[in-house]
Amino acid sequence: MTQPSNAPFSFLYQDRGGQIFLSLLLAVTLLVPILNVAVSPESALHVPSYMVSLLGKYLCFALLALSVDLIWGFAGILSLGHGAFFALGGYAMGMHLMRQIGDRGVYGDPVLPDFMVFLNWQELPWYWYGFDSFAFAAVMVLLVPGALAFLFGWFAFRSRVTGVYLSIITQAMTYALMLAFFRNDMGFGGNNGLTDFKDILGYDIQGDGTRLALFVASALALALGYGVGRFIAASRLGRVLVGVRDAESRTRFLGYRVEYYKLFVFCVSAMLAGIAGALYVPQVGIINPSEFAPANSIEIVIWVAVGGRGTLYGAVLGAILINYGKTYFTGALPEAWLYVLGSLFILVTLFLPKGLVGSLPAFSLPRKQESPQAHAGEDKPSDTPHPPSPTSEARP
Questions:
Q1: Residues contacting residue 69 through CB under 8 Å, at least 6 positions apart
Q2: E strands along the chain, which residues?
Q3: Secondary structure, 3-state, 69-117
Q4: Where do the structural domains in the chain lie, given as residue ranges?
Q5: How far, CA to CA in Å, does 253 sit from each of 242, 247, 377?
Q6: Contact 297/171 with Cβ under 8 angstroms?
Q7: 133-147 pLDDT tens trace
Q8: Global pTM?
Q9: Quick one: which of 229, 239, 245, 235 has its CA closest to 313?
Q10: Separation in Å, CA 153 to CA 166, 290, 301, 355
């Protein structure tokens, strides 16, 4: 039975793969806390606390991969610098956690973090003000990555920089940020970054209950991120984005301001990446400039390609599978892990060009027969004259 198009969450009714993904995510979100708390540690079904944090980290990576798939799979924007937005969200949360340490630090200063005392800073920099408030930090988690994406996208998309050139300058952006954050005089901890966190919202950050809460928060953020991405993809905006991806010049010829559409989805993607970074930091206990490394951003693209570009849930699958494999092989075959990752990417590219999920017809996204240009024509501005139909002119 077809659901009405104006029903709440109607964009999910025809999304079979999304329904399966959200069902599995709900099951995992419910089972992991139960298996951690209610099952005896001697049982084979028990999920230890360290595994809860590890699974939470995987969910953060999944949200990061989903944010990249939103722009690459649906708008054709290949960003090789999305790790920058992830790291900025992480630093915003890390600054809040550092302010919560107070006089419990090594040097006992109630205002300055330990690294500032060590470097003989006399007062707190102005850009640290407000981070003692969780609400302010949460706003910055969205605002800082979103503002950077807006400034970068405003100049890049208005200048019609596309393809490999856009990918290169996104990579240059994250590399420049990495070099800047490595400097001690930037006020972000330099090479060591931010660490030694004590608590979050008044709860011990190492406590089992806090780890479970962060895991659940990561799962909810992933579900929300998927809902936002699917809503955009299923809307008229999403159809225009597909038109931009497949035929940008023709979509622009139809009267659309293509740069505005790309800028909007780029900013949304950056904010999702910032949320992923903010949830990642309290679960791993550290954030440092290595998160800006261009290699990290390239690895994110590999997650999306392996899972299935343009599916959203495929990106989630790719991120979880590859990071689980990374965890396993770095312990079993530490010297061969990079070769395993490279071989996996080559094999998927050669034999599964649509990724693991995209190669399965049952989970492929339903696509209408109309071209993206036909969809884009539905939203054509009213001041653009419609050409007369050839069939109507032929009638007497």
A1: 229, 304, 309, 310, 311, 312, 314, 315
A2: 194-195, 199-200, 203-204, 286-287
A3: HHHHHHHCCCCCCCHHHHHHHHHHHHHHHHHHHHHHCCCCCCCCCHHHH
A4: 16-38+46-377
A5: 15, 10, 11
A6: yes
A7: 999 999 999 999 999
A8: 0.88
A9: 229
A10: 10, 24, 19, 28
